[in-house]
UniProtKB/TrEMBL annotation:
It holds the Pfam family ABM. This is Antibiotic biosynthesis monooxygenase. The lineage of its organism: Bacteria, Bacillati, Actinomycetota, Actinomycetes, Kitasatosporales. Keywords: Monooxygenase, Oxidoreductase. The keyword Oxidoreductase applies. It comes from the Bacteria. It comes from Streptomyces xanthii. InterPro entries: ABM_dom, Dimeric_a/b-barrel, Jasmonate_Hydroxylase-like.
C-alpha cells in the first residue's frame, strides 16, 4: 500500500458506530479495462447515501491490485434495500462483464466497535 502521508486528502477511518450494525465487505481484483469504472463508482457512492440506514464506507487498493471496500449499514433491511436498487444491480452486472476478474462479498453483524485517535 502507498504511504498514507502521500495521500492528497486526509486519510481517516470511519468512526465507530453504535452496535449492533452491519458491514458488507467487498474484496475484488479488477480487469485492465476500467473504462467507465470511475464514473460508475462515484455514482454508486452518491446513490448509496440515499439508502435509509447507510452509515458510510471505506475503500483501499493495494499496489498489487486487491481492492477492499467496507460499507456500514444500520441493519440488514438497509443492505437489502441497497441490493434492490436497479442502478446498483446494473453496475454489478457491468462489473462482472467488464471490470472485475473476481470478487467476494462478506456480510456480517458488528457486535462491538471502538476507536482511538492520537491527540
Amino acid at each position: 500500500m502507498s504511504d498514507h502521508r502521500d495521500a492528497p486528502a486526509p486519510v481517516r477511518p470511519q468512526p465507530p458506530f453504535e452496535p449492533p450494525y452491519h458491514v458488507v465487505v467487498f474484496t475484488s481484483v479488477r480487469t485492465e479495462d476500467d473504462e467507465g469504472y470511475a464514473e460508475t463508482a462515484v455514482r454508486m457512492r452518491d446513490l448509496v447515501k440515499e439508502i435509509p440506514g447507510y452509515l458510510g464506507h471505506e475503500s483501499a487498493r493495494t499496489p498489487g491490485g486487491l481492492g477492499i471496500t467496507v460499507s456500514y449499514f444500520r441493519d440488514a433491511e438497509a443492505i437489502k434495500a441497497w441490493r434492490s436498487v436497479g442502478e446498483h444491480r446494473g453496475a454489478q452486472k457491468q462489473g462482472r462483464a467488464e471490470w472485475y476478474e473476481e470478487y467476494t462479498v462478506h456480510v456480517g453483524e458488528v457486535v462491538r466497535s471502538h476507536g482511538w485517535k492520537r491527540d
